[in-house]
Amino acid sequence: MSENKIYNKNQPKIIWFVSILWLFVISFIAFLWNLGSTGLVDETEPLFAEAARQMTVTGDWITPYFNGATRFDKPPLIYWLMVIAYKLVGVNAWGVRLPSALAAISLMVLLFYTLWRHSGETRGRGEQGVAANGHSPLQGLGDQEGDRKNQGRGGPGRGRGDQGRRGPGDSQSPSHPAKALTPVPSIPPTPL
Fold first, then answer.
1. In Å, how far are 17, 21, 105, 112 from 98, measured between CA atoms?
2. Beta bridge partners of residue 65, listed in sequence order
3. Do residues 141 and 160 lie in contact, with contact meaning Cβ atoms separated by under 8 Å?
4. In the chain, how many H helices and how many E strands?
5. pLDDT tens across 134-181, in order?
6. What are the CA-CA distances from residue 177 to residues 72, 156, 173 (Å)?
7. Within 13 Å, how many C-alpha atoms sit on residue 129's CB side?
8. What is the DSSP secondary structure assignment for residue 29, as one 8-state letter?
9. SS3 of residue 190 by DSSP
10. Cβ pair 183, 170 in contact under 8 A
11. 95-147 pLDDT tens trace
């Protein structure tokens, strides 16, 4: 029995570790694998790369230049990140695309963390989250906001006692105010 308790106690940690491992494997495959295998394509990618390269050569990190002309199409943060990548991995296609790939990975990690945390809160299960319960992290997202808006204002919500939830066809449904005001006429079926 004590082994079972230890296994259950460590299970959320194992699930969390495996999930993070899979997240980084998917991130590597999606964003870093073959990152610099093709040359710079399109019209804008080489322009950004050259402006960042000129920042590296001139040492002027304030004003981006392209062929001697100032280039203020975008804020300079992307140029600065490219310059840092150039200093780390060299001036090549991999260095140009590395800041965007790292930004995409961080967005994916943030989304994963948000969904993991939110899925645990909606079911009241804490850290056990998605994998331990076998539910989707998106399950229950629609109900929670409606419950917060209607709680204590006479609408359906948590703790309303015997009123319960009203269905979407009910005339007092708070999901869409126009439905409560406009009755839907019933049309009899026409014979063929």
1. 25, 21, 10, 21
2. 70
3. no
4. 7, 2
5. 555 555 555 555 455 555 555 454 444 445 555 555 555 455 555 555
6. 47, 14, 8
7. 19
8. I
9. coil
10. no
11. 999 999 999 999 999 999 898 888 765 555 444 544 455 555 555 555 555 45
